[in-house]
Amino acid sequence: EFMQASWDIEEVQAKGIQHLASFVKDKSAFPHLLTCTEVITLAMKIHTDSLDLQVEGCTLLLEILSQALEQGVMMALDESVASCLLHTVRKHSENEEFLSMLCTLLMMVSASEVAAENLRKIGIIPDLLSVLRRFLHNDKICFSCCAVLWSLAVSENNADQAVLESALPVTSAVLQKHLQNGVVAESACSALWALALQGCLTDSDYEPTAALLLEALRMNPERAVLVKNGCLALASLVRLSETAALAILLDSKGSGIELIKDEYHLHSNEPGVAEALCLLMNEMVQYDEVMLNMRSQKMEKLLSEIKLQFPFS
């Protein structure tokens, strides 16, 4: 009430946020803090020029959301809160350190389908892409933005086809830049999978995107989630075009089929990885020429192994 009575006075908002922040460590205060997110974001929106207030507000929201996720509480932030956050992104689009924190917040928010839908509605994707282009070197920003992109693109009722298509070159650039950083590469593979699911690629994209995903698998063989998401992304590409299937067979760095075998043997206890590999192979055998090649490389042997390993799946 104290904050709502004096929206225009920056000092009141700052003191209010600081006082709310003092309750973060008190577990019994958590349900009450959950009801304050709108007040905090509105204070940030009204006083966007004050970087200190933005940082304190963002830090407090991160604390509240972290506790919510820990306790399995999904925070479905409404459209007004989403638009406040977008306003803040636009106002501080040059401030790398603050954006890093803000993008983490957006990633946590977008875990809720309702919040993701609200972020999509207010048109945040072009802003995320411009943040990515500007800070391609920043692994934290790249990780968070790709995770948000995945959440927004994977939505079934997606009307942003043109916007999503413009996300492909930026997402590919993130993966190319951070191939050796498993955490970022995993996030970028997920985003590429979502873009492939939405049919955001043109004929000229299939081969380079498939080659890039194979390279991500090669560079991060030990990361089960990356292998799973990379294979699912490849399966989506192959479903769309034989070019992608041929790119996997004839990859310049070596046979994609051999890579698939190696990845399976490395993660033979992971049902998620095995399922993604089977899905990819199932898409590949839809093309006669590809199937003949897979036969010659004794893929039946691998499939039999998988069947024995997961007899009840």
Automatic annotation (TrEMBL):
Keywords of this entry: ATP-binding, Kinase, Nucleotide-binding, Serine/threonine-protein kinase, Transferase
Protein's UniProt keywords contain Transferase: yes
SUPFAM superfamilies assigned: ARM repeat
Top enzyme category: transferase
Catalytic activity: L-threonyl-[protein] + ATP = O-phospho-L-threonyl-[protein] + ADP + H(+); L-seryl-[protein] + ATP = O-phospho-L-seryl-[protein] + ADP + H(+)
Superkingdom assignment: Eukaryota
InterPro entries the record matches: ARM-like, ARM-type_fold
GO molecular function, one term: protein serine/threonine kinase activity
EC number, as in UniProt: 2.7.11.1
Transmembrane regions listed in the UniProt entry: none
PANTHER family linked to this entry: SERINE/THREONINE PROTEIN KINASE (PTHR24363), SERINE_THREONINE KINASE LIKE DOMAIN CONTAINING 1 (PTHR24363:SF0)
Name used for this protein in its record: Serine/threonine kinase-like domain-containing protein STKLD1
Record organism: Vidua macroura (Pin-tailed whydah)
The encoding gene: Stkld1_1
